[in-house]
Amino acid sequence: MTQNVSHNYYQELIDLQDVEGVETHIQSLLDVQIESVSDLEKWLKDEKNLMIKIAEAMTGHQVDFYRNTEDALIKSTYLHDQQVIQPLLMKYEAKLDEKCCQSPYFHQLDEKRYGLMRRVRESKVKLFREENIPLMVKEQELNTKYSEIMGGLTVEWDGEEKPFPFIQSQLDHLDRSVREKAYHAMISAHRKIKPEMDAIMDELVQLRHQIALNAGFENYRDYMFVVKNREYSVQDCYDFHENVEKHIIPAWNRLADVFKSKLGVDTYRPWDNTAKLMKNPPYSEVSTLMDGVSEMLGKTDPYFADRFDYMREHGLLDLGDRKGKSPGGFCTSLPVSGDTFVFANFSPSFFSLIALIHEMGHAVNGYLEFSEHGPIEEYQHRMEVAELYSHGMELLLLDKLDRFYPDEEDFKSAQREELRRAFTMLFGPLSGDLFQHWMYTNPQHTAKERDEKYFEISKRYGLNPVDTSGLEAEIGMSWAGTLHYFQVPFYNIEYSISMLGALQLLENYQNNPEQAVEAFKKGASADYNQSIAAIYEETGVSFDFSEPAVKRMGDFLEKVIQDIH
Questions:
Q1: How many domains are contained in the chain?
Q2: Does the keyword Hydrolase apply (predicted)?
Q3: What is the 3-state secondary structure (H, E, C) of 161-204?
Q4: What angle separates helix 111-127 from helix 86-102, to the nearest 10 degrees?
Q5: pTM here?
Q6: Residue 347 counted as domain residue
């Protein structure tokens, strides 16, 4: 399942090793005299052209490192970016923001085209503190250390050393004893690295708390809401937590009883709470996975398959598992090339099939945006929007899972599992969001308290119907396997919000498939300078996570699952 790791999928149009040269390029922007609105617009364009060159090189180096965390030269290049170039960018970006915001022509820029940019830059000027640069560099170093530890994590399985994703895939095994064995093997692996994970997280929490204090906030949670320019409040999030607990968890408990019955078990244990009703993994080789996903995408819309096949042909997919490869999966943009790259550390499993479809939702969104508007700038990326199209792609392909599960009962089981995933994406990331609210508003917590809180929240949500007796400590420490808590803090609730939109998209698709796919493409190519609500509207759905909206989509999801006889 290995793939050739090539480095020719991105463009290096700027030498990041030449730090003086990079600094000269940026300084030249600061030296420009801006004497009209048109001058400012040209300056913004020149700034964008420079920054996307830097962004593509840094993104390529990061992906190289994730693909091979054990290569010393690749690691050195990546660390140079994080320890030298990133601090340089932080310093100069603050100066560029200040130059832009202080221009007398700043507020004369067209609101429709530049309104979001203005709000983001004004916010960044208010948030910037010189003393936070070394703290952010240290934060990145700790995240690199986390990737190295997780990338090197292996488990002994039947006398062989296996990558961690392989053990995760065994949770889908039909044999309950194999699932239980895999679950305990994962716990054992996590236990070995737990002291290191605790030390990294302890330091991250303190660093982030200090960053927030330096910027004038009481805690990192409040700071991040401003950093993310969220179009909703902290209280909105707490209300969402409660709405899901009230209206989604009871339905989840009923569905868990269905799965428990189909498994024929008396108690529903953690190793039963996985996709394990299909007879076999959906594929054995990465090439088979790619063949099938291309076909599924093509049956939904020819453009979707065209983009996938293009990425496959041009080395923009790295999907197999191998030692030294970082865990997880993601889709990232290459703004100069106009391409997207999908990285994943997959072993054959239902989850890996769905994860690839999910990332292709991001990729299609990226290609449509680039074709309509050119390179998307960082401030335009809002995850509540991006995740709508990744979740949406999963659900648009729901009726095509028979490509991998031709047996009728397996096909139905696969559909149930994907819809069960929709449930878990409503309450899973949301519970992770609540966990982070607690962590960063209680920054002096101990590692033991953190584990206890994680178990408590898990039992309120995803593990509500699961018998966890005797496993409280093991579940409590399992947060350490979630990279979001380390590398992208407070990137969680976006999944849950966008899943409500994706379920509306599925409802539309069931009523009129062609119209729903066209709405998907229209929204995925929309002007990202609009509000989130406006982009959702272009996709034919509502940006709404109020109690009535949560209840309605929960009822719809439960009905769809019940309709699969």
A1: 1
A2: yes
A3: EEEHHHHHHHHHCCCHHHHHHHHHHHHHHHHHHHHHHHHHHHHH
A4: 120
A5: 0.87
A6: no
